[in-house]
Amino acid sequence: MKHRSSITRRQLLGALGLGGGALLLDGFLGLRHARADVTDPDDAPLLVMCEFTGGWDTLYSLDPRNHQIFGDPAGGIFTGFDTVTDPITKGVIDTTSTGLVRPTGGNVDFGPAIGSLASDHRDDLCVVRGVNMGTLTHEVGRRYFLTGKFPRGLAASGSSLETWWAAAGGHLADHQIPNLVAGGAETYNEGLSPLASGLQVPGYAEMLQVLRPLNASLALDEKVTQAAAKLHGGAFCVPRQLDANGHVTNHVAAWTSAQSLASGGLWKHFDFKPNPPAGSQLDNLYKAFGVNPANPAAALAGKPRGQAALAAQALANGISQVALLRLVNVIDAHFDDDWTAGHPAAQRSGFDAVSNLITYLKSTEDKKGKSLWDRTTLMCFSEFARAPKLNPQGGRDHHLASACLLAGRGIKGNLAIGGTRDTNYDARPINLKTGAPDDEMGESIRPSDIHATILQAAGLPYNHISNQSPKLIEAILKTP
Amino acid sequence: MSAGYLGLAALALTLVIGCNPSPAPSNPSPSPTADPPAWEHPSVGADGKAEAAPTDFGGGLKPSASRSVRRMRIDTLQAAMSKVAGNDVYGAPIEWKYNGNNGFSDLAFGKALGRPDFQTSTEESGVTSALYMKFVGDASRDLCMQMAKNDLKRTDATTRSLFPKAAVDGTATDADKAANLRYLVLRFHGLRLDAADPMIPALRAVYDAGEGSVTAPGGELPPAAEGWRGACVALFESPLFHND
Q1: How many domains does one find in chain A?
Q2: B68 at the A interface (CB within 8 A)?
Q3: Beta-strand pair A199-201/A179-182
Q4: How many CB atoms lie within 10 A of CB B106?
Q5: pLDDT tens string A181-204
Q6: A472, A392, A447: which is closest to A133 by C-alpha?
Q7: Which B-chain residues 106-135 have CB contacts (< 8 A) with chain A?
Q8: Nearest-Cα residue of chain A relative to residue B140
Q9: For residue A417, what are the domain limits?
């Protein structure tokens, strides 16, 4: 390298930048003081986020209408249920004649594509209707719901919820993969510990490949790895010059994580092999997910149930604290064949997988003998909803007023709050204390409010949601 | 110790250990036998030239346009690793293979690594993740083994890609090994290091650990070649290889 006799201004600024990065990574700027006062890893709040990507039609599931009343194509809202061709959804519509599904003893009407979720877990589900997404652009809506902050153009603003959850939970060191992200979901880390960053895997098959060397015969001696660690972590000039925005620091942290992951036996938890021993954890998983043990791949490979099973194993074995799943692509249904057949089938497969996941978490105990579900928060979302009227192609275009599904720790169940207008499906303001629509004095509900509320319910801070004025929806909190 | 004190200690340490090597000759005289002069990677966004802002914006010096360093894309990674690995003894490019496919292709781990398919994804991460590094490790170990095995077949040392400056039959001197280490840093990272650069002993430690790990004859590689394979993997996995 070229030699210099003294520290230049640029070197000084570079050193300051690296020092500042060290402060940031240590949580000095904001995270440490926001961290929840949770000390026992077995009490760590768990989170599962399920993304239904593509923009879901809430008339099919979370914010339906009675087909007998809204079956006129000229009306402000047209269910279009007469045109549905997906056989199972059509069967529900034919059986009910309204398209509405209300489980016995339930207070909430669901749509015909809700699957088994409504009947299996009625008392746990909280539907938030009339969520104003403020955008009709896929990327913007998706990133808005991921971070709780409206994006800067298309770019996400701030960290995604699951990253914040893992960082603020204070248990990064207690989980080998604190933040598991599957199915191609996007994850963001803005200024939080690199350990909180999501480990992105397409599915459980790739998880196996991540957690063990592809070719064990090529492994290097442990002492080589140790010497390499010193090389990568060394305070040499060039790496420090290139450590803008913590790039090199993050690289070394990722390298260290990769070494740790690939050398352990974690992969065994994700080896969904046929015919596991009766009573084993895998056997219980297959039962909860309705998997034929003779051929588990048929039910899990590339399916929403496979993503949910991946999250289930990561949470149940203490490997992860949070899981973000792109559970299903519900198809951006602008055209008739997509909307009438593929879209409702995809939604149902996603909700069925959520149902399986809840069943498994309820039946699985942690070290203290408590159900894992008692510690878990669940959020299902999409980037926006679909329009209340069919377009000329027989599909539905994008719509601002969406809905989301919440359940779990600190969240009231068997409840629907908020709503959309019967005239045009617009979002209605709500009374935050009662959850009832209040067109005069109510507040508009946005993703930032959802984030703040479930964080509050789990005992975690939400002061990272800056510039959004997040509001707590007290109506859904068990202990406001 | 509180977070604040720890952070300040890190800051102070960073300042103390700033880049401060010995002075370079002000006018080095080129010599046909000497190594080319050491080269320093430019600082990010620093071209050393200050540009004047338009007067209607207030004039004065404005900072040069720059962007943050980011991780290279998968296409770039695939090309870069293949380029560094070179060719086998038959002239075919050395590639990371998995089940008969290029490991970086979408038929292998391209999608897992995050290469967009422009159907369900259109963007690629610019940040290194554990998943990315895990597969880079797999690729590195595979490529470096191929490089070492091909070099062992080459009788003309100058045609070798992994250890052209140090024999692997036990006759290489410390100077030979140091020269080969500097050659490898230049080949992998494009950095022409000074002989006294502190990275060299750190990389030498990797080599020594690899060489020392072969305790019995009959393995796939002789001890020295295993040492160079270890250094090769470390250089592929280094943050300096992945900057864009």
Answers
A1: 1
A2: yes
A3: parallel
A4: 14
A5: 999 899 988 878 777 888 888 899
A6: A447
A7: 109, 111-112, 114, 120-121, 125, 127-134
A8: A218
A9: 39-212+264-476
Structure token digits, residue A341? 């057949």
* Residue A14 resides in a domain: no
CATH code for the domain in which residue A302 is found: 3.40.720
In a domain, A220, yes or no: no
Secondary structure (3-state) at A421? coil
* Confidence bin at A240 (pLDDT 50/70/90): confident
Residues paired with residue B98 on neighbouring β-strands, in sequence order = B101
DSSP SS3 for A146: helix
Q: Is A245 part of a structural domain of the chain?
A: no
Question: Which pLDDT score, from 0 to 100, does residue B230 have?
Answer: 98
Global ipTM = 0.78
Residues in chain B with pLDDT < 50? Answer: 1-18, 21-32, 41-48
Largest CA distance in chain A: 85
> How far B162 CA lies from chain A's nearest CA (Å)?
17
Given the DSSP bridges, would you call strands A322-329 and A179-182 parallel, antiparallel or unpaired? parallel
> Hey, are the CB atoms on A261 and B210 less than 8 Å from each other?
no
* Closest CB from B37, B131, B191 relative to A201: B131
Of A32, A213, A231, the CB nearest to B202: A231
CB contacts, 8 Å: B15 with chain A? 12, 15-16, 19
Determine whether the interchain pair B239/A251 forms a contact, defined as Cβ–Cβ distance below 8 Å: yes
CA dist., res. A17 & res. A445, Å (int): 39
CA distance B64 to chain A (A): 14
Please give the structure tokens belonging to residue A163. Answer: 């990253």
Q: Give A81-125 as a DSSP string.
A: GGG---HHHHHHHHHHSS--B--TT-S--B-TT-TTHHHHSGGGE
Closest CA of chain A from B155, distance in Å = 25
Bridge-based pairing of strands A46-53 and A322-329 is parallel
Annotated domain spans of chain B: 74-241
Under 8 Å CB-to-CB from A446, ≥6 apart: which residues? A131, A132, A133, A134, A468
- Lookup: tokens for B163: 């250890």
Residue A8 lies in a domain: no
Distance (Å) from the alpha carbon of A380 to chain B's nearest alpha carbon: 19
